[in-house]
């Protein structure tokens, strides 16, 4: 017969605090999602993940994380909503204009020496930064020999990125960003306004390939001259961050360029000695070994 030394009311039984129970529920939820759907969030930073999970608990009108797990594992549509809420897209055209200005000045001269350019936007969200890059390359006379691979694990975000349709109310800010990023034309020439939305010109999409890719579980799929992954790894723990840096190192050509977000760095990873900075402030690095 199975026996244990715990009894209800025993202090040892009551040591399982609410925070510990919450952690157990989160671990079970993430393990179930990984086994059922193949999406691996187990190495995402816990504080940010916890907030997003509780947001989705309330959105699904359930009271516990365990109840959310039951719903996610038995309802594919609920799972799709969960994926979208966990990977909430936060982006804009020419986000951090100083980065794009530095890219024009320090990376574009290198790209001019290549007969063909492959660029990977990893974690492209709804595509605003992808179209920003297409515009930049167009203005620098490089777009015709470039191919941009835009990937994300969130299929709903990818669909919006493919359509290239955005709210017209955002164009004022996007125009300001474009000019501060060194734009050489009129930003309004790149889109057509219709009702409360704008759609970006078809020629900006012709050299872009949109595809699903999960940085936590998927492997390298090509060799690239430039990889941009901005403000994505801030949600990862050290183990997953190191894994993704390994993926990028494997995917970059010799002297390829890696662009990270403002709060991210190549330092304190096992690949730090493999790069030299092109711009320390804007987190632009060149692979040297």
Automatic annotation (TrEMBL):
It holds the Pfam family CheR. Residues 33-266 form the CheR-type methyltransferase domain. GO terms for molecular function: S-adenosylmethionine-dependent methyltransferase activity. PROSITE patterns: CHER. It comes from the Bacteria. GO terms for biological process: methylation. Coiled coil: none annotated. Keywords: Methyltransferase, Transferase. InterPro entries: Bact_Chemotaxis_MeTrfase (IPR050903), CheR_C (IPR022642), CheR_MeTrfase (IPR000780), CheR_N (IPR022641), SAM-dependent_MTases_sf (IPR029063). PANTHER family: CHEMOTAXIS PROTEIN, CHEMOTAXIS PROTEIN METHYLTRANSFERASE. This is Protein-glutamate O-methyltransferase CheR. It comes from Paenibacillus spiritus.
């Amino acid at each position: 017969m199975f026996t244990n030394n715990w009894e209800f009311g025993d202090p040892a039984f009551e040591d399982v605090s609410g925070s510990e129970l919450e952690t157990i529920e989160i671990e079970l939820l993430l393990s179930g999602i990984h086994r059922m759907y193949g999406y691996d969030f187990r190495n995402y930073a816990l504080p940010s993940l916890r907030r997003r999970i509780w947001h989705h608990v309330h959105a699904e009108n359930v009271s516990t994380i365990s109840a959310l797990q039951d719903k996610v594992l038995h309802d594919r549509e609920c799972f799709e909503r969960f994926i979208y809420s966990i990977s909430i897209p936060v982006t804009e055209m020419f986000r951090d204009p100083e980065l794009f200005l530095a890219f024009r000045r320090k990376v574009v001269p290198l790209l001019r020496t290549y007969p063909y350019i492959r660029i990977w936007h990893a974690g492209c969200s709804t595509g605003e930064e992808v179209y920003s890059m297409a515009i930049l390359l167009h203005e620098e006379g490089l777009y015709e020999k470039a191919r941009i691979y835009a990937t994300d694990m969130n299929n709903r975000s990818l669909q919006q990125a493919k359509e290239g349709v955005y709210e017209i109310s955002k164009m004022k800010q996007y125009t300001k960003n474009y000019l501060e990023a060194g734009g050489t034309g009129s930003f309004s020439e790149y889109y057509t306004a219709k009702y409360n939305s704008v759609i970006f010109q078809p020629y900006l999409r012709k050299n872009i390939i949109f595809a699903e890719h999960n940085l936590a579980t998927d492997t390298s799929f090509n060799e690239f001259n430039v990889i941009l992954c901005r403000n994505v790894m801030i949600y990862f723990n050290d183990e997953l961050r190191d894994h993704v840096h390994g993926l990028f190192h494997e995917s970059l050509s010799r002297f390829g360029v890696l662009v990270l977000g403002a709060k991210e760095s190549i330092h304190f990873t096992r690949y730090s000695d493999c790069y030299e900075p092109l711009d320390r402030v804007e987190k632009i690095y060149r692979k040297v070994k």
